[in-house]
Amino acid sequence: MNTQIALSRRGKALLCAVLLAMVGVANAQGGPTFQDGVTTPPVLTHFVRAEYPAEARKAGFVGYCIVRLTVDERGIPKNVRVTRPVGMGLDQSAIDAVKQERFKPAMRGGRPVAFPLSIKVPFGQSS
């Protein structure tokens, strides 16, 4: 039985970046790199906690949703959408919070670039 796992080109690049960062030989900018080996990911500079609606709080809901977005060249979230919904008004709360967050944009060759991200938005005990 063949137990090899096929990785996409993007997956291989991400794996290499993580491994290089773990051994301390990532690029000169000091952070992990992605895809092309010279792009650094965006950095969150302004966090906004998602509102925990009363209905979900009363029901004792604990969980999270996943939000997909693109951080543009100015560090502003664009095309924000939920890819793992949880309902009870939490999905819209997550979208509203993420749209207000700000980032230092991803950099490639010293220039800001748009960068896709997925963010886990938690709700419940620690919210």
How does this structure look, described?
The chain has helices at 9-22, 54-59, 90-100; strands at 39-40, 43-46, 63-71, 77-84, 102-104, 106-108, 111-113, 115-123. A hairpin with a 2-residue loop joins strand 6 and strand 7 (111-113). Helices cover 24% and strands 32% of the residues. The protein has 127 residues and is α+β, with helices and mostly antiparallel strands. The protein has 3 helices and 8 strands; from the N terminus they run αββαββαββββ. It folds into 2 domains: 1-40, no CATH class; 42-127, 2-Layer Sandwich (TolA/TonB C-terminal domain), CATH 3.30.2420. The radius of gyration is 17 Å and the shape is elongated.
CATH class of the largest domain: Alpha Beta
How many structural domains does the protein architecture include? 2
Give me the secondary-structure category: alpha+beta
Largest sheet: 3 strands, antiparallel
Write out key terms for the chains shown.
127 residues; TolA/TonB C-terminal domain; 2 domains; 32% strand; elongated; disordered N terminus
Architecture blueprint of SSEs:
Layout: H1 9-22, E1 39-40, E2 43-46, H2 54-59, E3 63-71, E4 77-84, H3 90-100, E5 102-104, E6 106-108, E7 111-113, E8 115-123
Antiparallel strand pairs: 1-6, 2-5, 3-4, 3-8, 6-7
In short:
By secondary structure, the chain is of the alpha+beta class. The chain has helices at 9-22, 54-59, 90-100, and strands at 39-40, 43-46, 63-71, 77-84, 102-104, 106-108, 111-113, 115-123.
